[in-house]
Amino acid sequence: MIDLDDDSEIVKIDLLVGHTSAIRAEPINTHNPPRTHDWEVYVRSADAHGDLSCLIQRCVFYLHPEYPNNKREVNVTPFVIQESGYAGFHLPIEIFFRTEKAPKKFRIEYDLDLHSNPEGHINRQKESYVRKYRYTFYDPDPDFRQKVLAAGGKMKDIDTVSTNNNDSNVEEESTPPASSPLSASDPNLARPGRDLETLF
């Protein structure tokens, strides 16, 4: 059980995990089925000035097995991969933090959805989707606290925090269905979150 007193420190950081998909003017016919979309998946700080290289050691993206080299590891910012395809698929992402305290990673079960445009509307040629994950750390060591703050994290008032049995936790903010994509700047992005998993 966490004992939060007047000397306790709590830091939090919001990460954005999302993707964009764009319908190609011409499919790539060297693949079967032809690849109709270009897409990218990313992990970013919700703070535009945050430097994730201070906090994240690497991100590993697990693509569908039909892709060559389907385990894609990115060791530097930006943490993003780009590919082409014809259909959506389940795309797990592992985020490794720069800390000596185990476990060092958090796994996100991400769904890559490639939108359709059956009526040919020009404003649906490209669409974006995003989810926000809030990481909360209770009494981190000074070095790790500075990494979180440099990456765009904030100190949190302990009066607003409910205690639990974890010294860190993660919340995911809910997102709309694929038919209602959001951009990272959409005011409807902020929704009540739910506790997902213990990090440390």
TrEMBL record:
GO terms for biological process: positive regulation of DNA-templated transcription. The keyword Nucleotide-binding does not apply. GO terms for molecular function: chromatin binding. GO terms for cellular component: transcription elongation factor complex. It is found in: Nucleus. InterPro entries: YEAST_sf, YEATS_dom, YEATS_domain. The keyword Amino-acid biosynthesis does not apply. It holds the Pfam family YEATS. Residues 5-151 form the YEATS domain. This is YEATS domain-containing protein.
